[in-house]
């Protein structure tokens, strides 16, 4: 608005409407009593003949009204706060605070943690212009050149995380956002294996003052969980002793307990069964760094996947690959048969077309309706699977070449050799994951309601893939995909990563609800996405090594860098306008006195 260039609060000019009642009252006041004086009658008649608008002539001749209007305008103008821009010099001290929020800052130190002490020091380092960089697995710029109030409010919202730290990236980020003549204050335990010293040297080479403040109390003789591996329904936990003397620890999960003996600096493992629904592995006795004393384990409530293979000529390679999957409960049956039990997955393999009952196909449809999956293996003579068959068979082709393999959980990092013979046909529905050069799909998938379908287009007798070590891997992934299950490895993640979910989907995290499409795994604990539960735990040998060398050659500078900034600031004129209004009011009183009204 144009008025913003003259008034700080232009809305105050609305009070000018107060002049309307004054003018109305002036027009409505009673006319004075007229007396006819013959002596001056000719003067009045002459004046009346020359007047063009007696009403407005009267208004212009009213000096009192004009004085009152000027007084009101002056008072209203003072409410709108008129101003002028004047130059101002200000001494600026700009600080960039790098606050370490990585997992090792949770080490108990006296009555609090390292992070508690660092946070208190960060508040003391805030100046008039302050930037805040949180140093976790990534460098988050929380405030950029904000006021002291903004910086302290941002610090109040920070907390220690359970992620491995990357101090070098944080210091580099601070150097990037720092203005000329700034200082960088790094508050950390410096228990970080990243080459942060290089970032400090680069910042100082730019002429920036870099101050390092170390908070490294506590954490001696730490013993922590540094890794885990899943095999079937078991988890193997790796524990490391960072102390200088042997020790013994116990690992417990849902009532199962294992003892481990650890030499100084030694590593030991223990294998525990994963209960349905998962649980929490506890390392005891604990120590001053509780974050790596716990391992969160997520698992399905029903660990078993019931698989039915319908076949009249059992594919031993297929059934062998399925039988070695610990989670799979395998049933092999021969059509014509009555399928009475409920299954999570039905696989049709080498079925005699004349012996396949309609009820056998309906059993697959029922599994799909319940949220399960159906897989169909290609064969030279294709039975009538109806809408369950994703590829419309046309003929038998020979010696194809694999054109493309799509990136998918089922086919990722698997090399598919071309078969000697295959079923040529067009894809009716779904998505092709493995495609031959003629466009025929060799592996295809499709979603059907809550269920899933997989088409395996390799004729087993004419394919060498069954001899490949990746063949069981492919079928394990396929069974888990068809059943709508995630493997234990997929359900359990290290902190510092992220979960991809639908946009705006709400996810329950250890610290409260969060929205997608990406959920950062900054906190150890359980994350619930819909009906599925994930777990995140600290798994880092370097982060569990919480004792860092002391910084003996670092000292705070005697003088903080400052600079002088010139800027234009508004100078309010309210008091001068008020004096003008008072002067006009005094002039009104003088006029009334002179006119004899007072």
UniProtKB/TrEMBL annotation:
Residues 306-477 form the DUF7408 domain. Residues 7-82 form the Aerotolerance regulator N-terminal domain. Residues 485-536 form the DUF7406 domain. Residues 494-515 are annotated as: Disordered. The chain crosses the membrane at residues 6-28, 63-85. It comes from the Archaea. Residues 95-190 form the VWFA domain. This is Uncharacterized protein. It comes from Haloferax litoreum.
């Amino acid at each position: 608005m144009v008025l913003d260039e003259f008034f700080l609060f232009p809305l105050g000019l609305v009070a000018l409407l107060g002049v309307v009642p004054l003018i109305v009252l002036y027009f409505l006041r009673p006319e004075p009593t007229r007396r006819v004086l013959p002596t001056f009658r000719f003067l009045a008649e002459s004046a009346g003949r020359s007047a063009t608008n007696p009403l407005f002539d009267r208004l212009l001749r009213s000096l009192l009204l004009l004085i009152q209007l000027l007084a009101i305008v002056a008072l209203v103008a003072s409410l709108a706060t008129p101003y002028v821009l004047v130059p101002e010099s200000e001494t600026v001290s700009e600080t960039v605070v790098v606050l370490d929020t990585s997992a090792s800052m949770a080490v108990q130190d006296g009555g609090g943690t390292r992070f508690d002490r660092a946070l208190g020091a960060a508040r003391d380092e805030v100046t008039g212009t302050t930037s805040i960089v949180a140093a976790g697995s990534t460098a988050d710029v929380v405030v950029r050149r904000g006021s002291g109030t903004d910086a302290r409010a941002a610090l109040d919202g920070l907390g220690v995380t359970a992620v491995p730290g990357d101090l070098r990236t944080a210091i580099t980020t601070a150097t990037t956002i720092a203005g000329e003549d700034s200082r960088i204050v790094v508050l950390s335990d410096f228990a970080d294996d990243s080459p942060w010293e290089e970032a400090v040297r680069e910042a100082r080479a730019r002429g920036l003052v870099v101050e390092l403040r170390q908070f490294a109390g506590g954490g001696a003789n730490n013993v922590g969980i540094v890794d885990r591996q899943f095999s079937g329904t078991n988890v193997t936990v790796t524990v490391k002793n960072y102390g200088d003397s042997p020790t013994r620890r116990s690992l417990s999960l849902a009532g199962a307990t294992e003892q481990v003996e650890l030499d100084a600096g030694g590593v030991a493992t223990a294998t525990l069964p994963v209960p349905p629904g998962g649980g929490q592995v506890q390392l005891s006795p604990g120590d001053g760094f509780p974050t790596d004393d716990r391992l969160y384990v997520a698992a399905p409530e029903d660990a078993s996947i019931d698989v039915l293979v319908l076949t009249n000529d059992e594919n031993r390679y297929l059934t062998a690959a399925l039988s070695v999957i610990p989670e799979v409960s395998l049933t092999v049956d021969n059509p014509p048969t009555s399928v009475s039990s409920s299954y999570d997955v039905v696989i049709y393999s080498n079925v005699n077309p004349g012996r396949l009952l309609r009820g056998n196909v309906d059993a697959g449809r029922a599994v799909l309706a319940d949220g399960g999956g159906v897989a169909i293996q290609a064969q030279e003579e294709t039975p009538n699977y109806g809408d369950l068959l994703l590829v419309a068979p046309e003929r038998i082709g020979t010696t194809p070449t694999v054109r493309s393999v799509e990136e998918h959980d089922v086919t990722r990092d698997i090399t598919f050799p071309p078969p000697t013979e295959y079923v040529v046909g067009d894809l009716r529905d779904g998505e092709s994951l493995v495609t031959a050069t003629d466009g025929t799909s060799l592996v295809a998938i499709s979603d059907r309601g809550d269920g899933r379908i997989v088409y395996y287009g390799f004729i087993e007798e004419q394919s060498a893939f069954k001899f490949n070590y990746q063949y069981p891997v492919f079928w394990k992934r396929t069974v888990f995909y068809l059943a709508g299950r995630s493997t234990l490895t997929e359900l359990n993640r290290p902190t510092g990563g992220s979960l991809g979910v639908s946009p705006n989907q709400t996810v329950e995290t250890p610290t409260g609800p969060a929205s997608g499409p990406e959920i950062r795994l900054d906190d150890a604990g359980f994350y619930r996405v819909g009906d599925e539960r994930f777990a995140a735990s600290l798994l880092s040998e370097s982060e569990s090594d919480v004792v860092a060398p002391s910084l003996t050659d670092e000292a705070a500078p005697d003088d903080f860098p400052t600079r002088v900034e010139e800027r234009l600031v508004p100078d309010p004129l309210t008091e001068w306008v008020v004096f003008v209004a008072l002067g006009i009011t005094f002039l009104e009183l003088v006029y009334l006195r002179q006119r004899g009204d007072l």
